[in-house]
Amino acid sequence: MTAKGIVYVIDDDEAMRDSLHFLLDSSGYKVTLFDTAQAFLDVLPGLAFGCVVSDVRMPGLDGIELLKRMKAQHSPFPILIMTGHGDVPLAVEAMKLGAVDFVEKPFEDDPLTAMIESALRQAAPAAKNEAIAQDIAARVASLSPRERQVMQGLVAGLSNKLIARDYDISPRTIEVYRANVMTKMQANSLSELVRLAMRAGLLND
């Protein structure tokens, strides 16, 4: 059975973690539990896209600080905040920092799972775009300085001869660099290379 999506639960209360694990697992989600926000942040760069469900009041790093850190990292993960009664001001602050919603404890099961489903559905396109942007940036980073110069010449519409003249090297050498650029950028055509350069922000208006 394919999971509906991934949910990362962050709460210092073991009983709450166990309860959420049971609820979400039985609802078809793949669940990973964390007892502190720091433990989650430590592994965040390697985590697959998912929805974060975090308590707002925790020892050490609280839910508000977690939101600030994730915002600073441009994380595409949607975040739902769990609050206690009387924590509405904290919940409002969380929403201002990018939380997609908040739920007051104790909460009903169905509204929570509906919130998670909605959060994942709405955030998925942005997460996909972010992943693509990171992939393209990694391809650009793999280019040597000379390959990057050749790529910029190509997307500017210069011929191999003109690029060779600019850098005082032979057109044959430019052909080798051009082949390397196309391979590393995973581009099958010049138009595809131009599109990738635009996505990477290498083309000025």
From TrEMBL:
Highest taxon above the source species: Bacteria
Domain Response regulatory intervals: 6-120
Chain positions found as 4-aspartylphosphate: D55
Gene Ontology BP term (one): regulation of DNA-templated transcription
Keywords: DNA-binding, Phosphoprotein, Transcription, Transcription regulation, Two-component regulatory system
InterPro entries named in the record: CheY-like_superfamily (IPR011006), Sig_transdc_resp-reg_C-effctor (IPR016032), Sig_transdc_resp-reg_receiver (IPR001789), Tscrpt_reg_LuxR_C (IPR000792), WH-like_DNA-bd_sf (IPR036388)
The HTH luxR-type domain, residue ranges: 136-201
Entry-linked PANTHER family: DNA-BINDING TRANSCRIPTIONAL ACTIVATOR DEVR_DOSR (PTHR44688:SF16)
Protein's recorded name: Two-component system response regulator FixJ
The organism of origin for this protein: Bradyrhizobium daqingense
